[in-house]
Amino acid sequence: MTQDFEGLNVLVTGAASGLGRATALEFAGRGASLTLVDVNAEGLDETRKACEAKGAKAITVPTDLSDAEACMAPVPAAIDAFGRLDALINVAGMLVFNHFPDTTVAQFDKVFAINVRAPFLLIQSALPHLLESEGAVVNVASASGVMGHAYTTAYGATKGAVIAMTKNLATEYWKSPLRINAVAPGAMMTPMASATKMDETYDMQLIAKGIGAREIARPEDLCEIIAYLASPRNKRVHGQVYSIDQGVTA
Ligand SMILES: NC(=O)c1ccc[n+]([C@@H]2O[C@H](COP(=O)([O-])OP(=O)(O)OC[C@H]3O[C@@H](n4cnc5c(N)ncnc54)[C@H](O)[C@@H]3O)[C@@H](O)[C@H]2O)c1
C-alpha cells in the first residue's frame, strides 16, 4: 500500500465502528498517526489497538459530539500528541429513521448537532493547523443528501447541509492550499444499518429506491477514495461531493 501519510496525523471521528473504524485502519496502513474520536470509548480502544497492530501510533479522545463544548477537545489533543494535523475526516453520524410525523424536536436537534454542528466546530478548530500543514477535510455526507430517501427526512436534511457546508467552505478557502471535499455513500453494511428497525408500517418499495440494484457496500469499499481525497497526492479535487453509492444517484 502507498505510504502517502508517513509522518502525517489524521483525525477521524466516528472511529469506534463502521466506516470510521475502517477509515482509521486505512490511514494506519498508509503510515499515518491517528487521533481517534467517538462517544463509544470501548469501541475506540478496539480501533486504537487495531491501528497499533498495523504499526501506527494512535490516541483516543472519547467525545460526545452532540455537546458543542466537547467538540473543542479533539484537535488540541491531536496537536498535543503529534504536534500537527494533516487531515480531518468527519465520519461520526446519527441516523433518525422513522415516519415523518413521528420525528420529535429532540431527535431533530440531536441529529443536526451530531451530523452538522460537530463537523462545523471541528473544522473551525482544525483550520489553523490544516492551513499550516496544507492539509485536507473530508466530510461524510450520504446519498440521502443528494436524492430522496423515505423515512429519513431529518437525517437527509443534515446530509444536504453537510454538502452545502463543504461547497461553501471550499469556496471561501479557494485561494488556500486546503482541499475540502465530501463523500456521499449509499447503503453500507454497518452497525448503523443493522440497528435500523423496520416493521410493516414502512413501505419496502420506497426503501428499496434508496438501496438500488447492486450489492450493499462494505465500509472497506469506501476508504481508498476517502484516503485519496485527504492525501497530499490530491492536488486538484476541491469542493466536490464524491458519490460512492452503487449508482443509485446515477
Ligand atoms: N451505513 C449507511 O448505510 C450509511 C449510508 C450513508 C452515509 N452513512 C454515514 O456514514 C457515517 C458512518 O456511519 P456508519 O454507517 O459507519 O455507522 P456506525 O453507527 O457504525 O458509525 C457511526 C459512529 O458515530 C459515532 N457517534 C454517534 N453519535 C456520536 C456522538 N454523539 N459523539 C461521537 N460519536 C458519535 C458512533 O458511536 C459510531 O461509532 C455516518 O456519518 C453516516 O451518516 C452511512
From TrEMBL:
Belongs to the short-chain dehydrogenases/reductases (SDR) family. PROSITE patterns: ADH_SHORT. Pfam families: adh_short_C2. InterPro entries: NAD(P)-bd_dom_sf, Sc_DH/Rdtase_CS, SDR_fam. This is Short-chain dehydrogenase/reductase SDR.
